[in-house]
Design a protein that fits this description.
alpha/beta; Rossmann fold; 2 domains; six-stranded mixed beta sheet; three-stranded antiparallel beta sheet; 40% helix; 18% strand; rod-shaped
């Protein structure tokens, strides 16, 4: 998205008095006498044209002084936000239905896909990646600002792709690995699961130590009926990871959880000095110079 702006917009304050002066401050003409005035036609229309050209030249000069710029907010260098990894449970239990209320035909995983994709598309100023875990974990999409690609990839995932069990430690650890090359000041892992840790070579305790060492914030979400997921473990992970723990018994509550996380504080990914701007002061300046040259040429008898 490109945004037009001005570096020195206050320069336009000089335009009203300048236009007033052009209108009211007349140049005293030296009187000349000639008996055949009909040879000169009607001078009024040319005076009006001169005034309009002077006005336009003045407006262009002020516009050039204000320095018009275009800021490309689509460029990743101009993005403000955080780097986020969604670590999603893809175990066999995520195939269970009944989580969606009126949409009972949908599985938990399908509802999570829809809500997670919507969350990704809302994070306009952030970089987002996705991890899927079951018996093991893998990075489904690296951390990127291409939200459409991330959202589309979430739709391609399915439960069971990483196995039938629940390796929560692996899910957290792989999120840390996905953020390894991140230069953002704030980095976040949002882990979602509907079960208990029962697989993988990395324990949740080891994984949260990795989170702490890397300076990453960890949020955890348990979904489904109370007692199906390890409430105490998820709460402890979020506490140790400097984040917050959430529980959602249905799709509506899960949507509310992601909406709350969407309000997290944002910080700059890159410094302001890297803002991508294009300056266009030369165009109004060139237009003003052309008009001034034309007016001088006319005054010297060119027309």
């Amino acid at each position: 998205m490109n945004i037009w702006s001005f570096d020195f917009a206050w320069a336009f304050l000089a335009l009203p008095p300048l236009l007033y002066c052009l209108y009211r401050c007349k140049i005293a003409a030296e009187p000349r006498y000639f008996p055949h005035l009909h040879f000169f036609g009607t001078p009024g229309k040319w005076r009006n044209l001169d005034w309009l050209l002077k006005t336009l030249a003045a407006a262009l000069m002020i516009g050039a002084l204000a320095t018009p710029i275009v800021i490309d907010y689509a460029d990743p260098r101009n993005r403000n936000g955080i780097d986020i990894v969604l670590s999603l449970d893809g175990s066999g239990s995520m195939n269970a239905s009944g989580f969606g209320g009126d949409e009972n035909r949908l599985s938990r995983f399908e509802i999570v896909q829809r809500i997670a994709s919507d969350f990704v598309m809302k994070r306009l100023e952030d970089n987002v990646g996705v991890v899927l875990f079951g018996d093991f974990a893998f990075i489904a999409t690296p951390v990127t600002y291409e939200k459409e690609i991330v959202s589309e990839m979430i739709g391609y995932l399915s439960h069971g792709m990483a196995g039938q069990n629940t390796a929560i430690g692996e899910g957290v650890a792989m999120g840390v690995r996905a953020l390894r090359d991140s230069k953002a000041r704030s980095r976040v892992i949002i882990l979602l699961t509907d079960g208990e840790h029962n697989s993988g070579s990395i324990s949740p305790k080891e994984a949260v130590e990795m989170v702490q060492k890397a300076g990453i914030k960890l949020y955890t979400i348990g979904i489904g009926p109370k007692g199906e997921f390890d409430n105490a473990l998820l709460e402890q992970l979020a506490r140790d990871g400097g984040g917050k723990y959430f529980a959602a018994a249905n799709a509506k509550e899960l949507q509310s959880v992601y909406d709350e996380i969407d309000t997290m504080e944002r910080s700059s990914i890159k410094s302001e000095s890297n803002t991508l701007e294009e300056h266009y002061y030369q165009w109004p300046l060139a237009g003003a110079l052309v008009l001034i040259a034309y007016l001088l040429w006319r005054r010297r008898g060119g027309a």
